[in-house]
Amino acid sequence: MTERNAPIGVFDSGVGGLTVAREIIRQMPNEHIVYFGDTARLPYGSKSQDTIIRYSRQIIRFLMTKEVKAIVIACNTASAYALDTVAGEFSLPIIGVINAGAYSAVHATRNGKIGVIGTEGTIGSGIYTEVMKRMRPDIEVTGKSCPLFVPLVEEGLLHDSVTDEIASRYLSALKSRFIDTLVLGCTHYPLLRSTLGRLMGSDVTLVNPAYETAIELKALLEERQLTCISGQGGQEKYQFFVSDLAEKFTAFATSILPMEAKGTRKINIEEY
Ligand code: DGL
Questions:
Q1: Is the CB of 80 under 6 A from ligand 1?
Q2: Cβ atoms within 10 A of the Cβ of 26, count?
Q3: Active-site residue identified among 10, 127, 146, 186
Q4: Average pLDDT of the chain?
Q5: Which atom of ligand 1 sits closest to the CA of residue 187?
Q6: How much helix, strand and coil, in percent to the nearest 5, is found in the chain?
Q7: Buried-most residue among 24, 28, 134, 178 (CB within 10 A)?
Q8: pLDDT of residue 233
Q9: Does 41 sit in the ligand 1 pocket, CB within 6 Å?
Q10: Is the pLDDT assigned to residue 255 strictly greater than 60?
Q11: Active site annotation includes 146
Q12: Residue in 10, 11, 12, 15 to alter for ligand 1 test, most ligand atoms within 8 A of Cβ
């Protein structure tokens, strides 16, 4: 397989990054993907930066054994904590989701008031505010961490009264700031999109960074002449690996992706 027909590596702490993989599949149907979900070590959102950097290095080393041509860190927490450090350590292009999300939000807002929801790690890092203010200094950004959303999504409680109640409490702080744009700053959150949209109201634009991330990836592959030539990417188009509980992951992946996610394999990520 020539380098341009090699797969793209995508990783997250669990199923959340599948929302990014879904967008890559939609925008670049020729591309092959190797996905890794670190289900044994989830959640990332409440862990320290050092730990997330160590996890990210291990996953990148694992993905490189699959000869990927580029890597997408499909996790806001790992993008916030590890991207700057790991991007210079490996010989292949690595992108995250935060620049893409910030760019979309800054272009979507009409009143200059943007809300960002994410894990404690992402919100605590202040990275969205920093990146958006660099793009447009007069922007007002309000961040709110929503630590219960990831377990709710991982449990499949996407449409449930418990999720509604918790989401209302988290979002009230943002509503009182009159935001007109809300960044779903955790790759798990687009799966709660209908609940979040209903609670925020139709005047608030929800930004899913996955869309812009796929555009950024496409531009990067084109610039480096790394786009896959149709039908030449080898046999297994989409491969899924996890660090724990492969069956549960497969069922979830199949419900999110436009195809059946067959044959998810469990690996020992600590070996990498
Ligand atoms: N989906 C990840 C993110 O985008 C984190 C979820 C977790 O806490 O593991 O931040």
A1: no
A2: 12
A3: 186
A4: 94
A5: 4
A6: 50, 15, 35
A7: 24
A8: 60
A9: no
A10: yes
A11: no
A12: 12
Concatenated DSSP letters of 102-166:
HHHHHHH-SSSEEEEEE-HHHHHHTHHHHHHHHH-TT-EEEEEE-TTHHHHHHTT-SS-HHHHHH
121 CA to centre of ligand 1 in angstroms: 9
Residue that has been written with the tokens 């995508």 in this structure:
10
> What's the pLDDT tens digit per position in 30-86?
999 999 999 999 999 999 999 999 999 999 999 999 999 999 999 999 999 999 999
**Digit-coded pLDDT (tens) for 76-116:** 999 999 999 999 999 999 999 999 999 999 999 999 999 99
CA of 203 to the centre of ligand 1 (A): 27
Return d(Cα 120, Cα 139) in angstroms, integer. Answer: 22
pTM (predicted TM-score): 0.94
Three-class secondary structure of residue 243 per DSSP:
coil
The residue-averaged pLDDT of 202-215 equals: 96
